[in-house]
Design goal:
- By secondary structure, the protein is an alpha/beta fold.
- Helix content is 31%, strand content 17%.
- Helix 3 links the parallel strand 2 and strand 3.
- Helix 4 runs parallel beside helix 5 and helix 5 packs parallel to helix 6.
């Protein structure tokens, strides 16, 4: 069985990852991957927006690092991407980013439910105690649906991120899932299976089986990502992710080249 591409990994430019792209690529070759993609956290319009992404002036450096990995490991297909935060009102900034390099794909992610609260930030975990969990999840999934509707992204990242710390609403979240899934299906974007959740307090792949099952029913394509922040996390827990995908009926994943796609069996 050929492993699907790992389309979600970071670099030290985001200020919370270690290892250069060549190190990630080397590990990918060692474990038998044929294709990977780098998607470090993109710059924001203001460099002081937060402290966990590259600065705007570092974007060219990021591309150069990925190009070096491509040259160093010609036997490995290495795609150039970005993980781009979706916030309402930032659409023009995202369009500008898209023109600056020949990207293969963008992962659209929601981390912020307001301009100041990134819900997955351990330094802001106390914010959860001030909010109703269902309200937070509702805002999150509304923004995730908006991200899909924007058609600015090839892939939607870690689609139920609010569960990261194990904080889940008592209410039924299925209507929230359905709202997002309908938007993604209409837009034609893919959704990733992100194995980083298995390394977090929730101990579960993003997305949960119920959300993934809804996505399959709507024929939403998928990709796979480790969300690696160090080289030995590349491809981590892909066997579990593949088993989850197959359990709801998936047999293909999507791959990208210059923002065009095709489907391959896994």
């Amino acid at each position: 069985m050929q492993l699907p591409a790992d389309y979600h990994m970071h670099t030290p430019l985001c200020r919370h990852a270690v290892g250069e792209p060549v190190d990630y690529a080397r590990h990918a070759v060692e474990i038998g991957l044929k294709e990977i993609g780098f998607t470090d956290h993109s710059p924001m319009p203001q460099d002081d927006f937060d402290n966990w992404r590259m600065l705007d002036r570092q974007l060219n450096e990021y591309v150069d690092k990925v190009r070096l990995a491509q040259k160093t490991f010609p036997q490995l297909t290495i795609r150039l991407g970005l993980e781009v935060d979706y916030l309402p009102g930032h659409e023009d900034w995202i369009r500008k980013l898209a023109t600056r390099h020949p990207w293969d794909y963008f992962i659209g992610s929601v981390h912020y439910v307001s301009d100041s609260w990134d819900i997955d930030n351990p330094a802001k975990l106390s914010e959860w105690k001030k909010r109703d969990a269902f309200e937070v999840w509702s805002i999150y999934f509304e923004r995730l649906a908006q991200a899909a509707k924007s058609r600015l992204f090839e892939i939607i990242g870690h689609a139920d991120l609010p569960k990261k710390f194990g904080i889940r609403p008592a209410q039924d979240c299925r209507p929230l899932y359905e709202h997002f899934v309908n938007a993604a299906a209409e837009a034609g974007c893919a959704m990733e299976l992100n194995t980083a959740g298995l390394r977090k307090e929730c101990r579960e792949i993003y997305p949960c089986p119920e959300l993934l099952q809804l996505a399959h029913r709507k024929k939403i394509p998928i990709t796979f990502g480790s969300d690696a922040h160090k080289p030995d996390e590349v491809g981590m827990n892909f066997a579990e992710a593949i088993a989850l995908a197959r359990s709801v009926g998936y047999t293909e994943s999507r791959r990208f080249n210059r923002r065009q796609h095709e489907s391959i069996k896994f």
